[in-house]
Design goal:
mainly alpha, 2 domains
Amino acid sequence: MTNPALGRLAKATPPGLAHRLRGLSDRTIAWIFVAPTIFLLLAINIFPLIWTIRLSFTNFRVNRPNEAVKWVGLQNYSRILNDADIWATMTNTAHFLFWTLFFQILIGFALAWLINRKFKGNDLWTTIIVLPMMLSPAVVGNFWTFLYQPQIGLFNYAVAFVTGADPASFSMIADVRLAPWALIIVDTWMWTPFVMLICLAGLRSIPESIYEAAECDRASPWRQFWTLTIPMVLPFLMLAVLFRGIENFKMFDLVVQLTGGGPGDTTLLTSINLKREAFEKWRTGYASAYAVILFVTIYGLASIYVKALNRVKQR
């Protein structure tokens, strides 16, 4: 039987080419159209990666292109792994990562649970909750910078009132203890709706018949929650952790807008530190090694996590 799509393609092509296409399988024709895109994506992604790996073994500086490039082997990697400042930024990143994931999963699931229970105005509230994630990070950063301003910042004023500080001189994003939490609050506000949508998809994928059978067995709502809802939504929760974990490990824009890594280095994340090494100190080879270490770290952790996710899905 002749493939209709192949027939239409043959009519739209020159006679010689159409004759050759008639002898090709659907899979071959699909590869003919997809291959250029795949090659382009590989060129855009693979070439910079290989070039970065090569530079990581040198002392190359992009602001000194005429200097002789010296091959230093693993020296850059050794310096990074033994640099106390690098480990301090890793600690800051781990703190930011843990608490943003904790609050986003907790609040996101709670919101999804409430939205999933049908009530009047359900669609309106869903739209309102999702609004923050529709804004660009630059807009969110400027908006929260205003809220954190001394004297006029409403959020900053509320925190100052609770802590007993003088609102005129107190600034949450300038306080060494509170600046990391200021970033966590903003990221949680912006991306909790994303987690909520994933959790909501998981909750709505559970058949009602399962709950009906549990009610017939006289299972309490609390028991249904822990033995039915959580296990069946767990793959979706893990998927949300994976997506947000990868994104927050690379967090850059909100930090630049709000604190720039300060005060001091209390909010200096790995992405900000990498940018400083590459485009402020101009240590290109060193920064390349730093980028490779971060890539391997993210890829390794994500691979282990995906294997765990697949095991959960197969249960």
